[in-house]
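TA notes, week 10

Several of you asked for a full example with nothing omitted. So below is the full record: structure tokens for the whole chain, then the designed sequence directly under it. When grading your own attempts, check the secondary structure regions first.
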């Protein structure tokens, strides 16, 4: 996965990696050790465990320990929306990863601008989550099996 793919857009920094992992788990349908997942998404196993931890806590992924351990989807791919993944990872982002604008310093116009901009970005994020909530991991897995077919989301 290129660095551009990992950093593009408004999604939480680990969103692209998490979706890649979830689609791969959906397609394999089996328990996969972190080293296999790392090989598939071209990342370090320790980093991937950090990406997967909030998904395990949210009940999206199941972690199994032991010799035959690894990760598997905790529920059907049809019931995992990109909106759910986005929301879980947004809540799990480390300080500084959320892209917060400004802090408590500054006065007057700067603070007002920060408030207005935060409100606008909040509305944009709500719309993004609404769109992402209409797309499931199963949708993406199916799309990967149909070369040349465009992916579209019908309005709700």
């Amino acid at each position: 996965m290129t660095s551009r793919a990992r950093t593009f857009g408004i999604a939480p920094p680990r969103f692209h990696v998490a979706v890649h992992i979830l689609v791969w788990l959906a397609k394999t349908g089996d328990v996969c050790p972190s080293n296999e997942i790392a090989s598939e998404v071209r990342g370090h196993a320790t980093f991937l465990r950090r990406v997967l931890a909030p998904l395990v806590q949210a009940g999206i992924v199941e972690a199994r320990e032991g010799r035959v351990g690894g990760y598997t989807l905790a529920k059907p791919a049809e019931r995992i929306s990109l909106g759910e993944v986005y929301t879980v990872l947004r809540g799990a982002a480390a300080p500084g990863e959320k892209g917060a604008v400004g802090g408590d310093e500054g006065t007057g116009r700067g603070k007002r601008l920060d408030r207005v901009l935060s409100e606008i970005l909040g509305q944009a994020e709500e719309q993004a989550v609404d769109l992402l909530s209409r797309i499931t991991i199963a949708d993406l897995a199916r799309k990967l099996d149909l070369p040349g077919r465009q992916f579209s989301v019908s309005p709700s």
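Residues 3-144 form a domain with the Arc Repressor Mutant, subunit A fold (CATH 1.10.10.10). Use that as a sanity check on your answer.
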